[in-house]
Amino acid sequence: MGLIMSIPFFDIILIFARIAGLIYTAPIFGSRNYPAQIKIGFVLFLSIILFPLVQSSILYDVSSAYQIFLLIVNEVVIGVFMGLILTMYFGFIYFAGDLIDRDLGFAMVNVVNPLDESQIAITSNLFYIFAMLIFLQLNFHHEIITALVVSFEKIKLGTVFFSVPSFDILLDIVEESFVLGFQLASPFVITVLIANIILGLLSKAMPGMNIFILGMPFKIFFGFLLFIILMPYFYEIFAQILGDGFKYIVRFFNLF
Fold first, then answer.
1. 216: which residues sit within 8 A by CB, 6+ positions away?
2. Contact 54, 152 (CB under 8 A)
């Protein structure tokens, strides 16, 4: 059994594994709109750039591929978890869109999510595009790369992934995503509730009026009007929310 210290070839494989896990799950970078060849080339480029900056003191057992396989899987899991933190945090977009579409009557219509090609609500897709534009405009995609570089300082190569404390972070992210989603949708929920009350009063005052035919365009009108009123404020709201998502990555680093 031979132990050899600091084999550059194995080091760069581990670096490649962590970067690949992050790139394939992080927002923007993990979108299926990009060909796999471009993602692989980007991951390889980052691996070569970061390799001189990463310090490694791993002892590799070259007589067995089992240790190297476990190290690769561990690095992939760390990268996937970092990307998953931001991706799950973006769940507030889908939750808010579902609430709004349910009240406006658009729940039966879905569009394709450009991130993972799943079916999402129309308003969710609008919020997603708006959030991604803000994400890029504020250079948060650069912050993801910065977090990746910092991860090699905070989490050394070969460090064992702590699963139980890390899953507590995911639970907190899910909780906050629900709260943020409801807060984002609350103006529309309240407006549609008021519109329903008005329609109910009209149906009592004028029993001959077909409330089911007038109700749908009535709620849609108020929903679009509220979109026009709130659109100037969405930039600051989304910018603040998206920036707060990186605090969970810092919290993840503090576990090590």
1. 105
2. yes
> Helix, strand, coil: what percent of the chain each, to 5?
75, 5, 20
Spell out the domain ranges in the chain.
Answer: 3-253
Q: Where are the beta strands (DSSP E) in 36-135?
A: 59-61, 110-112, 119-121
How would you classify the pairing of strands 119-121 and 110-112?
antiparallel
Encode pLDDT of 69-112 as tens digits.
888 888 888 888 888 888 888 888 888 888 887 777 776 666 66
CA distance readout (Å), 24 to 39, 115, 141, 235, 247: 8, 11, 14, 27, 21
- Structure-token pair, residue 239: 């910018």
The model's pTM:
0.78
Tallying the residues shown for the chain, one arrives at 256
pLDDT in tens, 176-193: 888 888 888 888 888 888
Spatial separation of the C-alpha atoms in residues 243 and 182, rounded to whole Å: 18
DSSP 51: G
- Nearest 5°: phi and psi at 86? -70, -40
Name the one residue in this structure whose structure tokens are 């329903």.
196
Distance between start and end Cα atoms, the chain: 30
Whole-number average pLDDT of the chain: 79
CA distance 233 to 87: 23
